[in-house]
Each structure stands twice: as structure tokens, then as C-alpha cells.
Amino acid sequence: MILYTGILAEIAAFATTAPSLESLQNFIVDIIPSRLPHYNWTGFYMLDPNDAEMLVLGPFRGAPTEHTRIPIHQGICGAAVAQNQTVIVDDVHSDPRYLACSIETKSEIVVPIHAHGKVIGEIDIDSHDAAAFTAADRDFLEECATIIGSFIERTQTSK
């Protein structure tokens, strides 16, 4: 847990001076997989400001994905938004919601990001290891999502 605490401290510190949401997201997708080797794909999907039913791929690190736009009622990413809660899947190949991105992916965690009282996006992490994500990963990523939501509330107006 000390490792997670250190990463969170760095993210929180960067969030105080980040010039934009994209720069904060890029900082996060750089630092997390570099420190946590079981995070093989780390990225953001944000709700399309012109279509509240569509997630749009934002900054990410890992293999390219064909899933650049995901309807909120499809996939594990869509489920996290629709259910407004973190979704952890220990074996993506046994979950019919999974939208295959990489044959190497074995597990996934998706954490909603809230701002102005609503879901506005999510952090999506894939791992090449089965059952890679624990309660500590959930807590860590939910805190990352809180930092991002607070940044958005501080720097952007409510729509």
C-alpha cells in the first residue's frame, strides 16, 4: 500500500499545477503503468460532451485499441458508467460484456470519475494477469478518480 500512497501523492501534487485535464491524464497514464507492472493498459474514457450515451477514448498507454468510442450500454466500460460503480472482472473471457481489445488481456478494472455530481468518465485498466486487481487497486484507482474529479470541478464549469 505504501507504493500506492506514493503514487497518489505524486498525482495529487501534479494536479495542483496541471495546466489541463489532458496533461493530468497523461501524467497519470505515464506514472501508473511505470510503477505497477500488472497494469498493462491504462487509459481514460470520457463521456462525449455532445452525446451523453457515448464514451470517447482519451489518453492511454498500452497497445492501440479499436474501441475509441463505446456506447455506455456496451462492454465493461459501459457497465461501470451505467451502474455508476467500479467494476472488477477477474477473467474477462468469462464475462460476456467484455469487448476484446487484446488477446493478452485477462482481467480488467474500470472506475468511474465523478464531477459536479455525475459520472463524466472513467479510468480503465487491463492486465495480462488473471485476477490482477485487489481491494487495494480499487481504493487506489478510486482515489485517482477523486483527484481527477476535483481537478475538473476546480478548472471547468458545470454543464
Question: Layout of helices and strands, plus pairs?
Answer:
Blueprint: H1 2-15, H2 21-35, E1 41-48, E2 51-61, E3 69-71, H3 75-83, E4 87-89, E5 107-115, E6 118-127, H4 135-155
Antiparallel strand pairs: 1-2, 1-6, 2-3, 4-5, 5-6
Helix pairs in contact: 1-2, 1-4, 2-4
Short summary of the structure?
The chain is of the alpha+beta class. It contains four helices and six strands.
Describe the overall structure.
The chain has helices at residues 2-15, 21-35, 75-83, 135-155; strands at 41-48, 51-61, 69-71, 87-89, 107-115, 118-127. With 159 residues, the chain is α+β, with helices and mostly antiparallel strands. The protein has a 6-stranded antiparallel beta sheet with strand order 3-2-1-6-5-4, sandwiched between helices. The model has no long low-confidence stretch (mean pLDDT 93).
How are the strands of the biggest sheet laid out side by side? 3-2-1-6-5-4
Q: How many beta-strand runs? A: 6
SSE run: HHEEEHEEEH
Based on secondary structure, the structural category is alpha+beta
Low-pLDDT residue intervals, each spanning 5 or more residues:
none
Mean pLDDT: 93
SS field, number of helical segments:
4
Cα end-to-end separation: 36 Å
Q: What proportion of the residues is helical, as a percent range?
A: 25-40%
Shape: globular
Strand fraction equals: 25-35%
**Radius of gyration of CA atoms, rounded to a whole number:** 14 Å
Summarize the biggest pleated sheet.
Answer: 6 strands, antiparallel
